[in-house]
Design brief:
single chain, about 240 residues, alpha+beta, Ribosomal Protein S5, domain 2, five-stranded mixed beta sheet, four-stranded antiparallel beta sheet, about 30% strand, globular
């Protein structure tokens, strides 16, 4: 039934390759099917003005899509002089999702910026960015711990994300573009590795959904995130 031939509860192939860039304190390339995202993490000895002097650390994110990450060329947002609303919304989502797995007191008064650049898009780019972004963040924190700059691990739990939706009336896990563009309901589910929900974004697109169907999608998301956390751990081993 699915265009890819996958089972309803089957993820796309996932791979996470670390150490992609030379200069960043953390980096990885995450591939979820044909969606590929480069994630890098940068440590800075500064924090935003609104938390300066608080002793709290900060994790933030930036997100972008390369012009030919999609089927037709997109104009670079830099040439327009501003980021689009979708870009701003996604990078805020990535930042607050990653912060949900961080003890900001233990991090200390410093900032880690996670950059997520979509090399190729086939659905689920924000979910891949969050999942890969945590791997880059983990590497950056390992750098701090190795140098003795933090005394206890500030990462309290892995963070990962997956999309689920109703396609042809059936609940499916990890939508690719062909499914996402035709889904009656689609959602993004961000969870910590301990199973705690961070954020759920669900919307009906020409259909509605019941409480029971929402519970089914959350169940699929829990399965998918568990698999992604395993992939994160394997990449970092």
């Amino acid at each position: 039934m699915r265009p890819s031939g996958r089972k309803l509860d089957e993820m796309r192939a996932v791979s996470i390759e670390t150490g992609i860039t030379k200069h960043a304190e953390g980096s990885c390339m995450i591939r979820v099917g044909d969606t590929h995202v480069l994630c890098t993490a940068t440590i800075e000895d500064r924090v935003p003005p609104f938390i300066k002097g608080s002793g709290l650390g900060w994790v933030t994110a930036e997100y972008g899509m390369l012009p030919r990450s999609t089927t037709s060329r997109m104009r670079r947002e830099a040439t327009a002089g501003k980021q689009g609303g979708r870009t701003v919304e996604i990078q805020r989502l990535i930042g607050r999702s990653l912060r949900a797995g961080v003890d900001r007191v233990a991090l200390g008064e410093r900032q880690i910026t996670v950059d997520c650049d979509v090399i190729q898009a086939d659905g689920g780019t924000r979910c891949a960015a969050i999942t890969g972004g945590w791997v880059a963040l983990r590497q950056a924190v390992n750098t701090l711990m190795k140098a003795g700059d933090v005394t206890s691990d500030p990462l309290v739990s892995p963070v990962a994300a997956v999309s689920c939706g109703l396609y042809a009336g059936q609940p499916v896990l990890d939508l690719d573009y062909a499914e996402d563009s035709e889904a009656g309901v689609d959602g993004n589910f961000i969870l910590r590795g301990d199973g705690r929900l961070i954020e759920v974004q669900m919307s009906a697109e020409g259909a509605t959904f019941s409480r029971g169907e929402m519970d089914q999608l959350i169940g699929l998301a829990e399965t998918g995130v568990a698999a992604l956390v395993d992939a994160q751990a394997a990449a970092l081993a």
